[in-house]
Protein: Acyltransferase
Amino acid sequence: MSIDSSAQNVEQNEKESVLDNNVITTESSEFDDIRHYRDDEVQDAIKSILDNEELVTGIYKRIFGFLPDFLSKLGKPFLKFILKLRFSKVKTIAQVQNYVARFMKGIIRDTTDGFTCKGFEKLDPKKGYLFISNHRDISLDPAFIDMACYFNNLDTVKIAIGDNLLRMKVATDLMRLNKSFIVKRSVQGRDKLKALAHLSEYIGRSIEENHNVWIAQREGRAKDGNDKTEEAILKMFYMYGKKKKLSFKDYVKTLNIVPVSITYEFDPGDQAKAKEIFETEKNGTYVKSQFEDIDSIVGGINGYKGRVNITAGEPLSGDFETPEELAQTIDNFIYLNYAMFPSCLLSAGVEDGVAPEEKKKFEERMSKISPELRDYVKRMYAAPYYNQQKVKKS
Structure:
């Protein structure tokens, strides 16, 4: 299926999701503090984005960086005019996501050796699913899941993002235009409990309205390669179920949870993650710079990834009495469906079946890693292999 035709289906789904104004929906004012933008807010958000000088400068440098600096005084205003003209007709979230899909096609073409997705073709386009995946890249994890949805005629996902990523208004606008909703990590005390209940209801109502939702299995990326579902996230889901007076096992069944295993043959942020672990072990702590998360997003998008594979399971239908049982089932699926690329096998000391040219490619990659970080990177790549072996043996 083409991206353009998929976008038309997304647009139709958006139109069909508008419910009676007297009913509380995920587009109601009750959720204004966390929801993604509506169609009627798209034009204002785009105007705000294109008025951001830093963003326009960045785009100008990326496209016209080869030109002399003195030409930027004329070039940047002209570029801004062209961008505003081009996006003046973009008035819906579906149209925004059509641009995002085209952008992702370029990312797949330029920074990967191929993208494969499995399991999504078995899902019902008329239902809403809660996708829970391992977490390796801040922006690309949900972006690749969105591409899998596009290619399989499924509505794109509402994306859970931490408020730590919203320190720049332009970043906030960009993410909320791409169906991102906010997880308030920074609140404390009673406000935190209230925020979690609010988030739980937003996610629950989204599924009730047949929207797809993505959330990572844990807060923060798995920097050491050990993908582990945080039970606290599953308990958060149940807060809305508890409000509805449902048992944990009965409410879980209504969420249509789909576990997803994401594999990057090469992680663009492997060295940065290793550095964080190294400095934490050495100094006892690691302090992020102000816009380090934004830098990670840019690095992940532009960096080489090798092959990328995403595998979705069937919606979980078992009787899960506790969050612990549910977490273990999600983890096992992620471990068993993690793609064993040569980077993973060689890091674990397994050479059987690895072609000589693949080994050479891996060794060249490792040679570019700082010597003090190399073992940390290898352990990160090897962890999924060991986790998979443990599940197979058990």
